[in-house]
User: Fold these one by one.
Assistant:
Number 1:
Amino acid sequence: MASQISKRGFNNSGDPTMYEKYWKQMGERTTIVIPGWQSMSYFSDVKNLCWFLEPEFGKQVVRLHKVVGNAETDGRHIVVGTGSSQLYLAALFALSPANASQPMSVVSAAPYYSSYPSMTDCLKSGLYKWAGDARSFNQDSPYIELVTSPNNPDGFVRHSMVNKTGGTLIHDLAYYWPQYTPISSPADNDLTLFTVSKTTGHAGTRIGWALVKDPQVARKMTKFIELNTIGVSKDSQLRAAKVLKVVADSCEKTRTSSSSEYNESFFQFSYRVMDQRWQQLREVVNSSSVFSLPDFPPDFCHYHGQVLEPRPAFAWLKCERELQDCESFLRGHKLLTRGGRHFGVEPKHVRISMLDRDDNFRLFLKRLSMVQP
Ligand code: PMP
């Protein structure tokens, strides 16, 4: 990750610093104080299958999913992780049989999130191995398919692509929130990953959660986290719980009354910013013949109560010129992006983060508008 994160100018890593502005406006609402004697034990709730899950965090996760309508939580176990990254590895561990003769193949349709291959193979596990693009997977052995929806990097809504039996799905729904995409129905999958990083922008808190139907799978995921880190920071869970609570409050209070407490809900604010940024980006791209952007079909959003166009967290920009490598072409114009190769496709596409701070995004647009054909 370190090599993928740049300290210079525009980030190409999707660091969600755009949200700082909202949280500054919220002032002390999300401040928590943790006395020195609190949160000392390893254990949070010994009666829970996930014994290190802070009850208040679990409560706010369920509440927020109900308020937003983006995921079924009934009949699910919540497993908390140090980011959804840790939960991804926990899911691979839990879904791969311990006694198989071959490692389980792990696939995702290209373009896929660039960290999946390196995370999957970094320890050269005997349990699972990266097997590339789900569209070209043709082995008869069992497999795990990652379904990222909306997808990082291209923003499209996705479903499983491997047309075979014997597969297990992991749904990575990091971006299935109303600022990025219309919420069409509550996700109802066997194993779904979410993260506060993309929900509220608190990437540094390092908290994610999994909604897991099968208790055996949830138990194995919990075991993996126990073996790795003996649980997940309680301080972070308490902070995340508070942030999710304020988000859910902002949704409920703006819905039910003309609240003097919240002018707009967190998702109204963030959709508005994303909408504005996408319009500005499209203006720049449309006024040049060098680049193009994908179009997204509008859909009814049950959260916002209207038909809306998706406003993905990343823009998947295509270079229409004959170029070897769009990423280095843009770097020559002092624009840091991440090229298609990282995502398992040709280098004529690059991924642009739409979640940077206002100043950086503005400068990015300015420099992009100066790129000549
Ligand atoms: N999944 C996807 C699709 C992502 O884009 C990211 C973050 N870039 C993650 C997972 C990892 O999130 P976390 O910060 O929770 O580890």
Number 2:
Amino acid sequence: MIKATNINKFYGNLQVLKGVDLHIEKGEVISIVGPSGAGKTTLLQILGTLDVQSDKSESELLINGEAVNKLSERALAKFRNNHIGFIFQFHQLLPEFTALENVCIPAFIKGTKKSDAEEKATELLAFLGLSHRLQHKPNELSGGEQQRVAVARALVNDPAVIFADEPSGNLDSESADNLHKLFFDLRDKFGQTFVIVTHNEELANMADRKLTMVDGSITK
Ligand code: ADP
Ligand code: ADP
């Protein structure tokens, strides 16, 4: 599902990723832990094609069989919208749109028919226990509900892989526990691959594999 070889990243003279190699199978839930500043977010952004590694010629990045290093900006934007889902610490829902509309947006960008997008979004929101919240705007939802809407949005195009950066970092422990269980339910139901950067030990340890990053390298 993901094959990354020799991923390097420099900011000026500072090397924040030092030749990272990573191989992730379809349906795996991977957690990435490590001290602040280790390079976890940078790695996730590069794997998710939101950022690019330094010196692409020396590295390889395959996502779902696609050599994303070699795509044009335009093709990459399309690939990202259609095949990758993102969940961030802060949900980044659009405040003026309802839950249902927020979930539909990536499907509209993909070109999915409105009725099909709404059907899919409604089904996902129901699976996430939010059938009674379709017409609510983000500020009318609890933190846990907002984050579940963000999860539905990440899933609406049936992405091959979901990248999550501190997805429960802003939630109380009960909402966090519910969100963590959800990732595994989704993997079991839809076969999704998850790559999750987290400081939450429980979530990190629930993963199929826990990777530790220290000073720009995966140490185990
Ligand atoms: P982590 O997610 O493990 O906390 P990050 O990937 O956020 O680590 O950051 C790794 C290192 O890269 C840190 O030293 C950080 O200060 C530096 N860094 C991150 N983004 C930038 C940037 N845009 N410009 C310069 N340095 C950056
Ligand atoms: P969750 O476990 O999903 O985070 P909570 O226990 O925090 O849910 O909230 C329960 C209910 O309280 C929610 O369904 C929501 O309607 C309401 N609620 C909680 N926080 C807020 C808020 N900040 N604004 C509006 N309603 C809220």
